[in-house]
């Protein structure tokens, strides 16, 4: 079929087409089983660095997500490819991406060639709305929800495509290791839009913007009415005549060099974000914002909104990003105390992570006299062993494989050899490295400061707020660096309130995203392995080779090739390199520990539209004795027990005799 989506004029024009037409084009791509089989073989070498491979098929009992076997699943895909059971490249790529999604790990993914051109979306954002913050919420289209205050006849959605609305939305979730976090991500969110710059529809929720899930969504409302929502995609000067042309241009490797990203000379100023009150101080890309509200319930409360710890905007690095972030955080804490604020809300809604050092530094600004505990293990296997034996020869090699630049979690004890770092040790069935930490004193610098480490002086020198006067506010999306920061704060007694999630009276995790402590981009690994392979080959004929010449065939079978030598294009992707561990348990990764927030509330319509009302709701529950969702307190892993009843309060005060 010829796809007439090009324009005759010279101007690039966006054209919205039915998603079904795009998928028809994708499924007209050919399938080359030899390339596909070879692709799986090469990709498997990269997947070996995923830190949770052995745990996922049989995770601990309290881990909420279903088990999955990544390597077994990849073997199955390879067998099907070898026997020609895939009809086209798109179906093959979909099988791989579905397998990776089954890990529910926001650090794990791959940009497969057929999935890079079309983004599927619709124009009907949804919201989950509670009448008062503690009553069970219902799902509405956003346009209907806006009428809730004026029309009692507005009807919630009961089902989508014949499935219960909650079950259907959960089936679309990916990237978080918690059902409530996955559920929240489907809905319109002002905070989440600040985390994902460059995706025009991202603030509308993943229901409106994601992978292919069908040509239509049939919404059935509680009052019996129906609405059909079409899936569309936007193309610009589509240059391919048919599926074969498409496949040849996007999937077959080409000898092209990667463009060097443009470095900004200053942080772009986006203007204060819509929906938020005017910040007292903010960073230009709105990655951190400080507020000193005086509205009801917030008179003595300061709010630090941190929707991301990232150091890039639309994939473009921001000059002095971590340093600017640190200065704004430090200045705002000073401003808050100068303004007489006694309590602090740290709003982490939408925070998917970013710079680890920014998260660690923010912790030190609140608790300057507390040391940072950081501990991780990476998966120890043959190709990592070979790479690690030569990394110390690199002029600027990767820290995680260089035993000379690593320290143990006490930040004082060095490793004496590669063997001491590599191990391997067995932790929850995973062949793992020794427990390791980046050397924070060596890593802290003027560009990536950690207060009190290395050349960075300790500032402030004492805590401005007590732990009981600080709360973390999340929507469960908190992932990666956000979880590292939250874990450090929690260890000092800082409580968490989580908003939203599934419509049931139960606890909710505040940190629902990946708790792995380090992501490893495939592009970074590709360059590293290319350098390591060159050195290993150069040493192969020496008197003490790492791999002898006679064993080079086996080396080629296990050692990752550069991405540009793959039989099919793989431009981006990542694995979770490092499992994180707490100071009291060095064998169970934090990824598999359930940690309920101390309190939970649901979003009201006002909370969704105006974050200041969300902060007031959080303050009411955590500082002023307001109610939490029934059954949400005292969950597994939370800091404090449930709130005492009136009887218990009277008993504790001595006004009531326990025998009466």
Question: Can you tag this structure with a few keywords?
Answer:
about 650 residues; alpha+beta; 2-enoyl-CoA Hydratase, Chain A, domain 1; 2 domains; 7-stranded mixed beta sheet; 4-stranded antiparallel beta sheet; 20 helices; 27 strands; about 30% helix; globular; S41A_metabolite_peptidase; serine-type peptidase activity; ClpP/crotonase-like_dom_sf; PDZ_CPAF-rel
CATH H-level superfamily title of the largest domain: 2-enoyl-CoA Hydratase, Chain A, domain 1
> CATH first level of the largest domain: which class?
Alpha Beta
**In angstroms, what separates the terminal alpha carbons?**
84 Å
| Number of helices in the DSSP assignment | 20
Strand content: 15-25%
Biggest sheet record: 7 strands, mixed
Oligomer: single chain
Mean pLDDT over the residues? 90
Radius of gyration: 26 Å
Roughly how much helix do the residues carry, as a percent range?
25-40%
Query: In which order are the strands of the major sheet placed?
Result: 12-13-14-17-23-24-27
Q: Would you report the number of β strands?
A: 27
* Rough outline: globular
Assign the CATH topology of the largest domain.
2-enoyl-CoA Hydratase, Chain A, domain 1
Structural class: alpha+beta
Summed up, the domain count is 2
Low-confidence stretches: 6-10, 197-201, 256-261
Q: Please give the CATH architecture of the largest domain.
A: Alpha-Beta Complex
Can you describe this structure in just a few lines?
This protein is 29% helix and 16% strand. The protein folds into two domains: 14-119 and 234-250, no CATH class; 123-230 and 265-372 and 450-516 and 589-660, 2-enoyl-CoA Hydratase, Chain A, domain 1, CATH 3.90.226. The protein is built from 20 helices and 27 strands.
């Amino acid at each position: 079929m010829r796809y007439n989506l090009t324009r005759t004029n010279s101007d690039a024009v966006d054209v919205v087409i039915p998603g079904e037409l795009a998928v028809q084009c994708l499924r007209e791509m050919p399938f080359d089983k030899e390339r596909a089989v070879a692709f799986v073989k090469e990709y498997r070498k990269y997947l070996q660095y995923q830190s949770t491979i052995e745990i996922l098929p049989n995770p601990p009992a309290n881990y909420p997500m279903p088990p999955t076997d990544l390597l077994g699943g990849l073997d199955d895909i390879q067998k099907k490819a070898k026997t020609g059971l895939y009809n086209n490249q798109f179906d093959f790529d979909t099988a791989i991406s579905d397998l990776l999604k089954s890990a529910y790990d926001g650090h794990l993914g791959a940009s497969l060639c057929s999935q890079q051109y079309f983004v599927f979306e619709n124009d009907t954002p949804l919201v989950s709305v509670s009448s008062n913050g503690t009553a069970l919420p219902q799902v509405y289209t956003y346009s209907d929800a806006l009428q809730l205050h004026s029309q009692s006849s507005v009807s919630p959605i009961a089902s989508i495509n014949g499935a219960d609305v909650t079950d259907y939305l959960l089936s679309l979730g990916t990237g978080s290791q918690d059902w409530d976090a996955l559920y929240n991500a489907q809905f319109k969110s002002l905070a989440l839009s600040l985390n994902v710059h460059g995706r025009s529809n991202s603030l509308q929720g993943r229901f409106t913007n994601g992978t292919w899930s069908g040509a239509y969504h049939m919404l059935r409302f509680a009052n019996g009415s129906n609405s059909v929502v079409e899936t569309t995609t936007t193309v610009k000067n589509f240059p391919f005549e048919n599926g074969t042309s498409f496949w040849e241009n996007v999937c077959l490797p080409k000898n092209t060099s990667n463009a060097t990203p443009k470095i900004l000379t200053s942080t772009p100023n986006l203007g204060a974000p819509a929906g938020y009150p005017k910040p007292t101080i903010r960073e230009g890309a709105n990655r951190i914002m400080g507020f000193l509200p005086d509205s009801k319930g917030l008179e003595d409360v300061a709010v630090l909104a941190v929707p991301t710890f990232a150091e890039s905007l639309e994939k473009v690095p921001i000059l002095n990003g971590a340093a600017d972030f640190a200065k704004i955080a430090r200045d705002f804490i000073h401003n808050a105390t100068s303004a007489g604020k006694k309590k602090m809300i740290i709003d982490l809604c939408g925070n998917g992570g970013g710079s680890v050092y920014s998260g660690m530094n923010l912790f030190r600004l609140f608790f300057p006299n507390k040391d940072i505990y950081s501990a991780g293990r990476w998966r120890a296997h043959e190709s990592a062993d070979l790479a690690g034996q030569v990394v110390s020869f690199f002029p600027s090699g990767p820290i995680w494989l260089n035993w000379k630049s690593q320290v143990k979690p006490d930040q004082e004890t060095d490793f004496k050899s590669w063997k001491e770092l590599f191990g391997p040790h067995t932790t929850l069935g995973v062949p793992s490295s020794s427990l390791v930490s980046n050397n924070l004193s060596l890593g802290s610098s003027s560009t990536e400061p950690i207060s009190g480490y290395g050349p960075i002086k300790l500032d402030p020198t004492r805590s401005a707020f007590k732990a009981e006067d600080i709360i973390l506010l999340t929507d469960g999306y908190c992932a990666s660096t956000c979880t590292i920061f939250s874990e450090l704060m929690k260890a000092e007694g800082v409580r968490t309130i989580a908003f939203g999630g599934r419509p049931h009276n139960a606890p909710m995790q505040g940190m629902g995203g990946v708790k792995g402590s380090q992501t490893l981009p495939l592009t970074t690994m590709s360059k590293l392995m290319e350098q390591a392979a060159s050195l290993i080959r150069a040493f192969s004929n020496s008197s003490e080779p790492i791999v002898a010449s006679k064993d080079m065939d086996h080396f080629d079978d296990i050692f990752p090739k550069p991405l540009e030598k793959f039989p099919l294009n793989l431009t981006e992707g990542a694995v979770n390199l490092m499992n994180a561990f707490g100071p009291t348990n060095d064998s169970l990764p934090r990824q598999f520990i359930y940690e309920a927030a101390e309190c939970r509330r649901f979003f009201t319509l006002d909370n969704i539209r105006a974050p200041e009302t969300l902060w007031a709701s959080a303050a009411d529950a955590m500082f002023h004795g307001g109610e939490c969702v029934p059954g949400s307190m005292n969950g597994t892993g939370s800091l404090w027990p449930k709130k005492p009843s009136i009887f218990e309060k009277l008993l504790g005060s001595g006004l009531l005799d326990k025998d009466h």
